[in-house]
Design a protein that fits this description.
By secondary structure, this protein is an all-alpha fold. Helices cover 76% and strands 0% of the residues. The protein has 19 helices and no strands. It has helices spanning 15-35, 39-49, 53-81, 83-101, 107-124, 126-137, 142-149, 156-170, 172-191, 223-240, 245-248, 252-281, 286-313, 316-337, 346-371, 376-391, 394-405, 409-428, 435-449. The longest helix is centred in the middle third of the chain and has 30 residues, at 252-281.
């Protein structure tokens, strides 16, 4: 006879989706106020202090060094104590750093205060902490959930416009000060929602029900119960799969992946600092330049969610190669056709935005397919560290080129070359944990559990 059925009612909305929403909101604010939104403060600070663009860009380059150096430590700590306390502490440090920046009195004080905010932003961002949370709550829908969870920056344009309005009304110092306080008050409650695993609450990843317990004399399960049993097997398989960080770091696949993201991040890190100044150098008004930032991040939402969805269906290297190719085309368009009017910048913002967004959601999926989830935090930190190594060069290089030539064209041509170099490397990466391979392994495991050879 069968055991009594599990009568617990399935929640209308799986709790994992609340965590996805929290990640989305936290990253929308962090990106809009700090990672991307700080462009709004770039020129006001230059005008007040009279520093060169290269000098001010140096703080952003140091941000990349600091973030890259801190990422492996952050990933290791997240794997040990969980992401919740890290995200909370990051929110406090980010807010404190922003408040301190409002009291800047010299280039060196700006560097120090900016470093405090950078450490905090690393803790709150989707690169490690929120990624680990979402990966633990989803498996079949992992790519899609990650794509949505890291898509918060699509609202960067909205936050940027709000900040620009406040800068005009009350000045950059009061705007940064208020932003820092607001970040603390919002990020901490969002982080408090984090729960480490669905199993602790009686569910499997993706909201699947646990398989019913059966005795040897039980009758065969119906089709729905069989599906639940297969899902449980796949979940158990993925929980047990994976290698340690030390093993992964000795593989060629990890360093090939790192090379791809290094090639791309040289240009993306530079544009994060110089996108508004770049389009202003082409004759755009500040408002028009801000529109291009908004368009990039709207398009990035398509890339983040779309790449995550595709990664659930196809081998992730195909998505990775498509992403690299689109970004190379974006830089090529910007170099060949330029942008003398807002409408002419739209093709660039679409191609660049989609590829930039895809880069964010593909990284954790690629790591999970290559090495499993056993040390995902540590590996995400290491991959970010190696990628950000090139990000220390990008902002200063682009600012230095402008200081010499009064034009960014040489920098843009350089980014065409470096991005194109990453294309064949991306194509050569062959994860052993592709969706098709995971299904085959799950079938083999199911056969062993049923006693078949």
């Amino acid at each position: 006879m069968r055991t009594a059925p599990d009568t617990r009612q399935r929640p209308r909305i799986f709790y994992g989706w609340y965590l996805v929403a929290a990640s989305f909101t936290c990253n929308a604010l962090t990106s809009g106020a700090y990672w991307q939104g700080f462009q709004v403060f770039f020129l006001p600070i230059l005008r007040e202090f009279g520093w060169s663009r290269a000098a001010l860009s140096g703080a952003f380059a140091l941000r990349q060094i600091e973030t890259g150096a801190f990422a492996p430590i952050l990933g290791f700590v997240v794997d040990r104590i969980g992401p919740k306390p890290i995200i909370m502490l990051g929110g406090v440090l980010l807010g404190l750093g922003m408040v301190l920046i409002s009291y800047t009195f010299s280039i060196w004080s700006f560097y120090v205060f900016f470093a405090v905010a950078s450490i905090g932003a690393s803790g709150t961002s989707h690169a490690i902490g929120w990624t680990v949370v979402i990966v633990r709550w989803f498996r079949r829908l992992r790519g899609t959930a990650l794509g949505i969870g890291v898509s918060g920056p699509i609202f960067t344009g909205v936050v940027l416009f709000v900040l620009a309005w406040f800068v005009d009304e009350v000045g950059w110092r009061w705007t940064i000060r208020g932003t820092g306080l607001a970040l603390v008050c919002i990020i901490i409650p969002l982080a408090s929602l984090i729960r480490m695993s669905p199993q602790a609450h009686g569910w499997l990843p993706d909201g699947d029900r646990p398989r019913p317990q059966r005795r040897p004399d039980d009758a065969p399960l119906d089709a729905e119960a069989e599906r639940q049993e297969r899902r449980a097997r796949r979940a158990a398989l993925e929980d047990d799969s994976g290698v340690t960080a030390g093993v992964a770091l000795r593989t060629r696949a990890f360093w090939m992946a790192s090379s791809v993201f290094m090639a791309m991040f040289l240009g993306t890190s530079a544009l994060q600092v110089h996108q508004v100044p770049f389009f202003e150098s082409k004759g755009f008004t500040t408002a028009e330049a801000a529109v291009t930032v908004s368009l990039v991040f709207l398009a990035s939402g398509v890339g983040r969610i779309g790449a995550g969805f595709l990664a659930d269906l196809f081998e992730v290297r195909y998505v990775l190669a498509l992403m690299v190719g689109m970004q190379a085309l974006a830089w090529l368009y910007l170099f060949v056709y330029g942008s003398t009017a807002l409408w002419a910048s739209v093709p660039f913002t679409i191609f660049y935005g989609i590829s930039f967004g895809a880069m964010v959601s593909v990284r954790p999926v690629l790591l999970a397919q290559l090495f499993g989830t056993r040390a995902l935090g540590s590996l995400a930190g290491m991959l970010q560290a190696t990628a950000l190594a090139s990000g220390t060069i990008g902002p200063v290089f682009m600012g230095w080129i402008f200081d010499i030539n009064q034009s960014y064209d040489v920098a843009v041509f350089t980014f065409i070359v470096t991005t194109a170099v990453g294309l064949p490397i991306a194509w050569a990466i062959r994860p052993s944990g592709s969706p098709a391979e995971r299904r085959r392994r799950a079938r083999r495991l199911g056969q062993r559990m049923r006693g078949h050879p």
